[in-house]
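Pasting as-is:
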Amino acid sequence: MELAMIGLGRMGMNMARRLLKGNHQVIAYNRTPNRTDEIVKEGAIGAYSLSELMEKLSPPRVVWLMLPAGPTIDDHLEQLKDLLSPGDMVIDGGNTYYKDDIRRAEMLAEKGIQYVDAGVSGGIWGLKVGYCTMVGGTKENYEYIEPIIKTLAPQDGYLYCGPTGAGHFVKMVHNGIEYGMMQAYGEGFEILEASPYAESLNYAEVAHLWNQGSVIRSWLLELAEEAFKKDGKLSDIRGYVEDSGEGRWTVQQAIETAVAAPVIALSLLQRFRSRKEDTYSDKVLAALRREFGGHGVVEAEKK
């Protein structure tokens, strides 16, 4: 299947690679052309402006956006709506707030342009293991792009979630749960670090142990093991933890619908607090974000 990929960052580049390996034709565009040049060497067709991108796509065009949530997407859609034709389709695969999906779908519908929201999880490991994908929009549009989604996802790793916004809504809640899980792991390792047994424990070995049949085993613990192998006490990074929006939106949704979500809410507030203090649990969170998503960390001051 032919599609355009706009945005070749940590996720978009590897998604384009996975699609190329699945024998899809990818026309790639990035605001910085060196990223486009890189994927062209791997088999993609390069475009160096949005108008050139449209010219290289056959109608009905399918355009996949992998861009930061917020104004960047709106800026691109403002340009694309005048370049696309009725029957063309835009897929937003970023971490967009679901209410923005509804607004953007209505705006594009005035031009006869289809809109699909796709919540994508997999981080920098998605190229190898696949991207868990949650899709919102019309069932007809979902079925049309299913060959793309199937290539991106592992087996049983994608789901049609419902009408516009449903894909990003499910992904939002997914990330809220992720906040809570990471916080629990971070706090657990901090309790170990503050214990009389800290000097005798190897945290990489502890994380590995807990993944051998225990009830708290997970991919996050595998990543914790890898982080501790690189730096046994996480001494090279500060416990400074950013949030990319989805946790805030999950808590906001819980408030709007009067759902008690204390674990997710407190895990978000702990991230705010991490920017003023430097605790061991926050080092674990920062290390986990680096391992699964390639997110930057704040290096610890050299003593």
